[in-house]
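Changelog-linked ticket: zinc ion example.
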Amino acid sequence: MDATDEMAERTRREVRAYEFRTFAVGITLPEGVQEREDELRSELRLKGNETVKTQAARLVASGVVRSTRKRVDKARPDLSVLADFGTGEVSVSSRPAFFYGRYSKPAGVSQRRLLCPECRGGGCQKCGGTGFDRKPSVEEALRRKIGEFTGSERMIFTWLGSEDRESRVFPPGRPFVVEVKSPKKRRIPTRFGARVKRGLVSVSSGRTLPSKPVTLPPFRFLTRIKARAAANITPEGLRELRARFRRAEVTFERPGNRPAFKKVYSVAASAKGKALVIDAELDGGLPVKRFVSGELVSPSVSEVLKTEVGCRTFDICRVKEKGGFRFTEVARNKEKDQVAP
Ligand SMILES: [Zn+2]
């Protein structure tokens, strides 16, 4: 117990690097203390909840409360402190932060960062030891920027669908969620930009999520497709496209998997000779290039026009979520557990 002031002081030093509102203290006792306490308690028939461990934790915590004015929250603390009374070490970890945003991007930027083709992630001279390709990516740009905001380099991204490296994604952009592990700061701006070699990745509609989403919402998206047909396209062909794909269902064969049934909400197209511009609204998860070519997808643009059509590029004009995210409600479950017998 003589060490509690010293450990509280060390804890104060360690937590200074973090922005937080609440914290909790856990204790590791030196070898044998717990056993000797148990012996003593049984020999003297001592009852009550207070143990060496809970008292030490309380004293360290109150030392921190006095100097920082932060609150103790055992159920869902921003910071978890582990004070080891055996070694004298204090370690701190913070609750992961979950952030939702939407990104838009120029052509020539891939969504995910890719492994270095030379070393396949091991780290070599070509990639500067990082193991990742030097080509620009949304992920790399966001990692750098969110790293600056949060003081953490450990992040896990979840994307609501994806597109090609050459696709542009226009505002309001494609939704994503990032889990930031052990952040030093928890605030991320609602909108920000991240420079990449070929322009700017911008994020908007940002908000902090209460916890990890358990399900992602289904979504649909509007895309502008530039395609080329093997034969000249007739006005009848364009009319047929529009009529055939008004709230139509298409089948997407996935080898080794059950086929997926996806909706096509609308298709409008214009043509000049063999060149086609198609505006389509599609269900998330329906691959645009296959919807055009007909490879594994039926009906397709090629099938309806009765000529081979190939997608050259497609841009993402809008992504619409159907419903919101669902979360596990950590705090509420805990309370329920406590009232349950
Ligand atoms: Zn490499």
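Closing comment: Example verified and attached. The first helix runs from residue 4 to 15. Helices lie at 4-15, 33-43, 52-68, 138-150, 235-244, 288-293, 301-305, 330-339.
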